[in-house]
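Reviewers of the previous submission asked for a worked example of the structure-prediction workflow described in the proposal, so we include one complete record here. The input consisted solely of the amino acid sequence. No template or homolog information was supplied to the procedure at any stage.
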Amino acid sequence: MKGNDQVIAVLNQLLADELTDISQYRVHSEMCANWGYEKLHKASEHQAADELAAIQAYNTAIRLAQEADDQAAAHLLRKILLMEEDHVEWAEQQSTQIEQMGLANYLANQAAS
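From that input alone, the workflow returned the following structure tokens.
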């Protein structure tokens, strides 16, 4: 069975985006480690960059897969979408903590304990 060309193209683009994100977050993670922010270092290893755009891209890809009647791709994309939404929630939590405790206190809390 040959997959839908449009679905395959979107999946390839999403893969390229994810690989780029992984590379960027590895750099950020290592910078945090070098600065002594061990908690941020560990958290950055698990995040992807530009989360909101990724969520929009996955929603669009899910619709395309459904239109092409590719339920396997749609199912996979839904699972990835849930992970992306978790990443956004984590980033929002960190932003709220910075607002509430101030950047200096937040960064002090991120150092290895």
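The domain at 5-110 is CATH 1.20.1260.10 (Ferritin). We consider this example representative of the routine output the project will generate in years two and three.
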